[in-house]
Amino acid sequence: MVEAQAALDLEPSLELVREGRLAGVASRVSLAEFDESALAERLGDAVWVEEKIRLHEQVLERVLAATTVLPCRFCTVYRAEADLRRFLSERQEALAAALTEVAGRVELGVKAFVDPERFEAGGAQENEQIRELTTQAAAAEGGRAYLESRRLERLVSDERARFGQEAASQLHRRLLGPAERGVLLDLQRPELSGRDEEMVLNSAYLVSDRPGFERELAALARELSERGIELELTGPWPPYNFVSEELRA
Amino acid sequence: MSSRDLESYRSGQPAQLADVLERVLDKGIVIAGDIQINLLDIELLTVKIRLLIASADKAKEMGIDWWQSDPFLSGGNGQGKLDKRLRALEEKVGLPTSDEEES
To answer: How far is A43 from chain B (nearest CA, A)?
Structure first.
């Protein structure tokens, strides 16, 4: 808690509200901005939402760097400090248990993408039918060459989809080894992920042995890289995906 | 982290908005605050973002523009708010409101 306090000194608007063994990280906000009716309207304001969401995340990361933290849903507002204190003391046992579950652990995110060109040169060539068709298409001429190349294109694309799924399940299985827990998240479209390549895995892991986890990830990256897989590691995140079920509504 | 690891996978970039959104909006403990975003509002926001993403044409339009510029997602605030203010002003000075003119 002393560590958390030190982290918060960096951000003057934040307060540490201590209640028994627990503390809540809070900041005072104006009702004009955060009252129910105001909130409903603010949620339509993308600039406001992005700013507040980033801030919410930054505060959690700062606390995470110093101690164990349970992330609350974005925009959880109490009208008075006493209400927050009451919550902390009433749910003390459940909160302490949830904290114990994630103590000394962080959430790491892993995303896997398939690079189409590298897949075609690498992973696709493991498929005999594709190898044969590649030779045929190269030898063919005129209209037949066009048809063969279209057939090859379709075959490569089907094979890429199959390979993507297979690689994703292999990655997830292997990464669960050095992790305590893991969950699969929704795949992101290129517009959202910011990358042109197709995303085949989006997952999160609760990890205590970070070097071990990163070694396994690096090994997987080397094994799968030639076949077209690219990996991305995100975090450490506060354990958003691993908070105790009983604390969820 | 060794340099070998750095070569084999990407990491350490600033968090993508998408990764923050999927965590901050969808996850985390839901406790009974005195004031809380209605879960339906959150759902609606997430659905809107997803719908918008499904219809976005170019990755370049992402970043923040993709929802700022979209009337669906920024609905009620950008143009809608202006319209509302305009209507209020028109009423105040006793002019027929733009709504009435249209109908």
So the answer is: 7
